[in-house]
Amino acid sequence: MYLFSVIATAKKDQPELAEGQQGEFIVYIDFKDQAGAKQLCKFYVASLGFSNVVIEKMKLANADFIKNSVSSGHRKPIETAQKQGYYVQFFTP
User: Fold this and answer.
1) Cβ atoms within 10 A of the Cβ of 81, count?
2) Boundaries of every domain in the chain
3) Residue 51: helix, strand or coil by DSSP?
């Protein structure tokens, strides 16, 4: 599983942002191939109505990270990503 820190620009007004404003995301992608995970990350953020999707950081979440996230804020997103293949978390400004 890969974790991405992403910045993207709203293509139209969103509940959290006006058109043209940038938002920050953490995206969890459960995919084995790194290049494919990057493309999926950009696709899922774009599908929410954002453009200029820029991946700022990427981390491979190995088994130890996942195991140790049981009580952390990462647990729900990890479980969701494991079930559906991805999870997108938006951070309000």
Assistant:
1) 23
2) 2-91
3) strand
What is the spatial distance between Cα 27 and Cα 62, in angstroms, rounded to a whole number? 15
Asked if 26 contacts 6 with a C-beta cutoff of 8 angstroms, the reply is yes
CA separation for the pair 62, 47 (Å, rounded): 27
- Distance in angstroms (rounded) separating the CA atoms of residues 88 and 36: 16
Residue 81 neighbours by CB under 8 Å, 6+ apart: 1, 28, 29, 30, 87
Q: What pLDDT sits at residue 91?
A: 81
The pair of three-digit structure tokens given for residue 45, joined into one six-digit string: 């953020």
Using one digit for the tens of pLDDT, what is the confidence trace for 17-73?
A: 999 999 999 999 999 999 999 999 999 999 999 999 999 999 998 878 777 775 677
